[in-house]
Amino acid sequence: MIFRFFLIFVFSGLLTVVKAQDFAAWQKGYFTRDGTTLPYRILYPEHYDRQKTYPLIIFLHGSAQRGNDNEKQLIHGGNFFLKDSIRNEFPSIVIFPQCGQNSTWSYFNFRFDTARRRLDLLFNFQEKPKTYALLVKELSDSLVESGLIDTNRIYIGGLSLGGFGTWDFIERYPGYFAAAIPICGGGDTTCAPQIAGKTAVWIFHGGSDPLVSVQYARQYYRSLSRVGADVKYNEYPGVRHNSWVNAFKEPGLMEWLFSKTRDSNRSVTHR
User: Fold this and answer.
1) Is residue 265 part of a domain?
2) Which residues are registered as beta bridge partners of 41?
């Protein structure tokens, strides 16, 4: 009972009403494998040219946006990628998949710390990916195979539950993603060496997050720094769980993302 309550409460985020007409440019899609369907929304560049290849951005939502309505996952971040300034300067294909109601993007457990009287998260990377995460990877692979994607520029990000998933993806598929932006998440820091030299990471977290402790972000930042990874960390003093608001306002976020390539994992000049 404690576990169920905590899971619902911790990753609930800030639930707001989504109006479908606000996101008309986000086309609906459904990807099915072995009887399981992944709903997703896809945003193409405003002046889309099928003769060109584009960067791919995958963004993973939080717990409150799980389900199968193919709407809620756009609550946080959907409007950001619709901005004219973003679509004009950073043309890309953007995907917001939706995780099933009773599933997660990655593996984690809870442990009650009796000394501190709190529930701690335990991130335990496992060989087999979670079902919906696997579908996201297969969807991404299918887009790559279609010839639409610049494979040097595949990016991933996510918030809260999706922040956990972001870490899991770059731990699981070293070198597949040129860069990642985990927001108010956490992961298995023992995987830091396999990320270094493969994926650039910009971490975001609220300094006063009461739901997902800022310690998880700090620990991963230290672990990546120790192994010489390309990593940045923004901690927002006084900000609670909704640090994605700050992250989406971060100057240079998209410039940084688009400066990273899979081949070199080093800065390139943005055009």
Assistant:
1) no
2) 28, 96
Is 264 inside any structural domain?
A: no
pTM of the model: 0.89
Instruction: Give the C-alpha distances (Å, rounded to integers) separating 72 from 60, 92, 169.
Output: 11, 22, 22
Q: Which helix (H) or strand (E) holds 94?
A: strand 93-97
CATH number reported for the structural domain that contains residue 106 in this entry = 3.40.50.1820
The answer to whether position 142 is within a domain reads yes
Task: Report helix angle 131-145 to 161-172, nearest 10.
Answer: 60
Q: Give the CA distances from residue 162 to residues 44, 59, 156, in Å, rounded to whole numbers and listed in that order.
A: 22, 8, 10
Question: Which is nearest to 103 in space by CA: 235, 200, 246, 7?
Answer: 7
* Nearest by Cα to 184 from 210, 167, 166, 159: 159
Helix (H, G, I), strand (E, B) or coil at 41: strand
Domain presence at residue 268: no
- Return all residues near 104 (Cβ < 8 A) that are at least 6 apart: 63, 130, 132, 161, 164, 165
pLDDT in tens, 84-140: 999 999 999 999 999 999 999 999 887 766 666 556 888 877 888 999 999 999 999
Spatial separation of the C-alpha atoms in residues 106 and 124, rounded to whole Å: 9
- Name the residue with tokens 């910009």: 202
Read off the pLDDT of residues 26-81 as tens digits, 9 standing for 90 and up.
999 999 999 999 999 999 999 999 999 999 999 999 999 999 999 999 999 999 99
Boundaries of domain holding 227: 2-258
Q: Checking DSSP bridges between strand 118-122 and strand 109-113, what pairing results, if any?
A: antiparallel
- φ, ψ of residue 229 to 5 degrees: the values are -75, 160
- Total domain count, the chain: 1
Residue 253 CB contacts under 8 Å (≥ 6 apart), including other chains: 181, 202, 247
Separation of CA 86 from chain center: 18
